Amino acid sequence: MSMRRRAAVCLISLCLAAACGSNPVSGTPSPSPAPGPQIITLVDPAGHASIVDQGHYGLFAVITPSAIWATGSDRPGLNDVQRIDPVTRSVTDWFQPSRGVALPIGVDAVGAPIVAVGTQTSSGAISATEIDIVPAAATGAGARGFYTIYADAAHPLTIVGWPILSSGALWLETDRGLLAAQGHDRLALVSAHSGFISGGCL
């Protein structure tokens, strides 16, 4: 295993801890129920630490070895999902819906971000009226090239935990139950039971 890949694994564990609303200076819980700006730190196997990114908002920050997906803080409304390169630390505007809060909640089988669009609750969770898979940058009016796998303004979904990929399908737990989709098909309810997905298919 290469040094870069081992360092990326450390980055994943640290970012999940940072994305839960801790104070980026003291590490103590934030007094606000919805998290504020995060600091993402890369720690290599030798213990050397460096800041990869800071200042992004949102309950969710999605980390892969090749990209960090987070919501930008430089525009009001938290509606600009950005791609951060963990090596060069460059930031690319990736997805901006026409309305609503946009938060990355996971990635699909090819590493494209899965973005929930809706409103952020007082606990910081996302109540989504739309869920999109965005394989290429799609910003600005009339942007195309993304796939909508859920859209229902009358029946928003409160996302529960992280989506997982298993048995060729995307599985997502919500307050309405367990949903699944294959490829870029629409999400369909497969169980009314609501809880946390504990693992893939056996």
The major pleated sheet works out as: 5 strands, antiparallel
Question: Helical amount among residues, as a percent range?
Answer: under 10%
Number of strands: 14
Structural class: mainly beta
What's the quaternary structure here? single chain
Order of helices and strands: HEEEEEEEEEEEEEE
Side-by-side strand order of the widest sheet: 1-2-3-4-5
Strand content range: 35-45%
User: What's the overall geometry?
Assistant: globular
**Mean pLDDT metric:** 74
Count of DSSP helices? 1
Distance N to C terminus? 27 Å
Rounded to the nearest angstrom, the radius of gyration is 16 Å
Low-confidence stretches: 1-34
List keywords for this structure.
about 200 residues, mainly beta, 5-stranded antiparallel sheet, 1 helix, 14 strands
